[in-house]
Amino acid sequence: MLEKFYSTPNVKSLFRSFILARRSRVEITHKTYFQVAALAVLSLRANCPPQLQDRQGWLRFIYCMCTFVFQLKQDGKAFDRTLKWGESYPYAFPLWFGPFICLFNIHHPDYVKTLFESTGEGLLVSQGQKWFRHRRLLTPGFHFDVLKPYINLMSDSTKTIIHNKSSKITMSFELFEPVSLMSLDTILKCAFSDNSNCQAESGRNTYIQAVYDLSNLISLRLRMFPYHSDFLFYISPHGFRFRKARRVAYRHTGKSLKRLPNINQTGFDQLWHLHKTACVHFFLHFCLLSHLQDEKQQGLADEDIRAEVDTFMFEGHDTTASGLSFILYSLACHPEHQKLCREEILQTLDGKDTFAWEDLSKMPYTTMCIKESLRLYPPVPATSRVTTKPMTFCDGRTLPKGCHLLASVFGIHRNAAIWENPHVFDPLRFLPENVSKRPPHAFVPFGAGPRNCIGQNFAMNELKVATALTLKRYQLIEDPTQKPKLIGRVVLHSINGIHIKIKPVHTN
To answer: Where does heme bind (predicted)?
Structure first.
């Protein structure tokens, strides 16, 4: 119906002139904007279900939209509202994003277990056999033996941010942006042997800004129901911004890809030797994987490698930056736990300036604090799936094929039926005897099942190293005037930033 609507001569003429005016930067009258907006509303109504076509249905439609915009506005309280709804619906409830998109919000471990353990284009969005093949070929790149050499690189990046913040002593400062630069610096070093020196850049990094814009626009498009139309989003100012940010992000990863040696020129055996001797790093493994083949003699094509590099660049810096920022904030708010972590870290390092691989397993209390922060502030607050066949949950209820599901990690981690005092920071929840009392899917910051985060060991190692070296050097202090206002933009962010104060730690 929409295709027929847009194909009428007057509508085509109006949209064509609107797009040309946008491209040529000609001033557009308010009348033209109003006409386009009116056509957008009419086109959405034309695509409404039959029951919404009459007058009463149209009024219900408008009421639904107004209610939705009010309830899920970006004011830092959307998570509080969904948690409140979860108290009335202990397993799941529907979230309507406009008249056509409904996400079935799941926030109970038993339901999430069914979702995560079911099997269904980067690893972030791949489907079916393509995903299985990619996962099988990529998994060796995240083996412990492969990850060991990167501890020193993680330490180097952390020391840079520690040095840069020495001028911020006793001052309140925003944490997320410098931590984003540190995590980007780490992934560039580990992935491409690229000493980008991005932490020394003046102004905001273009790639970080592009990722932030993309995340914000994806969230905006979901919340603004007219943008559910590909065409309307394409011609909108936000659509132009989205394509511009996407070009910037692709250009950045393209430059990084060029740093990888050509396997045909260098030779497989020579590359493998360099990799084993830690002369080159991590996603050089992509080059090796492009040479590997599965049982059907299929490897990763160039476009597959590009898709995975885009995924790991995003996942490797933005989610880690969110996780680490909230870990440091949590410890700043709870000095008693921060003190215990620092004592453990100093004992583990025993006078050393950096970490060895073996040291990471010697900080159980620090690890529990990291996990507790990931529980309260999961970097990816929700993940989505679409049912490809009917799905039956543990209580016998069934969803049909084609349903959009949203696994609310934030809701699961704060479910009062699972966690006692769920909003309280309590690292002792992760003592082995306490973990054994909970359902296995009560804590899922990296997902679970066959599609869990392939880089979770890399991420946990980076979080441990960065947290430990920061606490070794600085005491973290809460800024009570700047409480984070949480919002979900693909990755967990704060509208007003994440602010703390620091002061040096003097040790003998």
So the answer is: 453
Residue 435's pLDDT is 95
295 or 451, higher pLDDT: 451
Binding-site annotation, residues? 453
Distances (CA, A) of 379 to 20, 48, 107, 429, 492: 40, 35, 16, 19, 5
Q: How do residues 320-334 score in pLDDT, each as one tens digit?
A: 999 999 999 999 999
Q: Which of 192, 197, 194, 186 is nearest to 152 (CA)?
A: 186
Q: How many residues does the chain have?
A: 508
Tell me whether residue 148 is exposed, middle or buried, using C-beta atoms within 10 angstroms of its C-beta: 0 to 12, 13 to 18, 19 or more: middle
140: confidence class by pLDDT, cuts 50, 70, 90: low
Q: Which comes out higher in pLDDT, residue 39 or 440?
A: 440
Rounded distance, CA 24 to CA 166, Å?
48
> Tokens for 113?
């277990």
Assign a CATH topology to domain 2-504. Cytochrome p450 (1.10.630)
Kindly tell me if the per-residue pLDDT of 121 is higher than 50: no
The first and second tokens of residue 159, run together, are 């020391």
Q: For the chain, give every domain's residue range.
A: 2-504
Sheet holding 101-106, edge to edge: 92-97, 101-106, 404-408, 382-386
